[in-house]
Amino acid sequence: xxxxxxxxxxxxxxxxxxxxxxxxxxxxxxxxxxxxxxxxxxxxxxxxxxxxxxxxxxxxxxxxxxxxxxxxxxxxxxxxxxxxxxxxxxxxxxxxxxxxxxxxxxxxxxxxxxxxxxxxxxxxxxxxxxxxxxxxxxxxxxxxxxxxxxxxxxxxxxxxxxxxxxxxxxxxxxxxxxxxxxxxxxxxxxxxxxxxxxxxxxxxxxxxxxxxxxxxxxxxxxxxxxxxxxxxxxxxxxxxxxxxxxxxxxxxxxxxxxxxxxxxxxxxxxxxxxxxxxxxxxxxxxxxxxxxxxxxxxxxxxxxxxxxxxxxxxxxxxxxxxxxxxxxxxxxxxxxxxxxxxxxxxxxxxxxxxxxxxxxxxxxxxxxxxxxxxxxxxxxxxxxxxxxxxxxxxxxxxxxxxxxxxxxxxxxxxxxxxxxxxxxxxxxxxxxxxxxxxxxxxxxxxxxxxxxxxxxxxxxxxxxxxxxxxxxxxxxxxxxxxxxxxxxxxxxxx
Length: 494
Description:
The chain has about 500 residues and is mainly alpha-helical. It has two domains: about 10-195, Orthogonal Bundle (Fumarase C, Chain B, domain 1), CATH 1.10.275.10; about 205-305 and about 320-490, Fumarase C, Chain A, domain 2 (Up-down Bundle), CATH 1.20.200.10.
């Protein structure tokens, strides 16, 4: 893990304003390294910290000179430096399994960038320590559950305790945890008042599902070739008649893959393919549009000073507010999962068509010459099972409800759950597409069909055909699907 990061030549400078979701993924997966922070942004964070300390020393500022939640009416003495550590200790109660390194690293990237936006009023030494951890390959142990979409309090409290030397770090080979920091009553809430974990996980899920959406088009195009389907549904006049951006992009990609003109001639034979082929632009397009909408929302969030209270340098004031409430992200994540789910259903529909002799002119289930050969029959069941799991995690998390902290916090977005569900959807979507890919390549082999030379679809076919087992007799297909799962990221780049 460390070596991968060290080999990465690209450096990304965090400045509180220009972070993109792709940058989060690169830093989380260590294909890029963090550069020193933008000097102006770091100076802004320092001034915010000094302003917050003055305000807390001279007036009532939530979480600094008062308790939090229903304890907001209780004053804390300015000399009570232990208040911050008590707050971190009490809130560092996340439960469940420890999160993977890349998810924790994504959280750290987002939190550093938000701190550089200049509204947190946090000790800037925290920024330096977190950047050092990102660069070296160290991350705090963070457990999965502890948030309901109104701030990732438990995960960030564990991070705060790790910075203070009271919570464990996980280090890549050769990496070291940052030296312990002295955090006081001004630093605790300023660190944990953020949805950084949710946003980091969302960025990772968006990146992976975008790649899978890209891979699904060459897979679908191979299936279309295998059944002798029509490119009429992807014609430019059809898209111009109902000009949704995502649908037009999907149709254009399908034509490009197969090298067909904007106004393809209708095929001889059957009129109108099943929906799995004919309605691809209308079903794939909304997923592309939902991905763009989510990306836009996440870009706002990861560059936002959303801490409560907001420390305004310009006004020399602390504003108490609700910017921590993550409804935008929750709703966009729910919409995105539901849109991607529709494309997965379409994949299982194409898989069913590949098993039909009426479409392939082959034996049922792409069976070989043996009597009653089952061929790829089980792939429909396997893909259906994965689709069922995907459907379960596509249930809108924003339908959840919680009343917390003695009724003071009477609503929750559950964006944190939406982010975890979206990450889980990636695995199931891969499995569904892999089943279709195995069947499509098998059908093309059995029909002795290949795309014309020089086309992007030709590259996709040979990538898959070279990797997949060519044997046609009845046998377990588990290994074939596993190979196909591993091909999808490469197919996305074609």
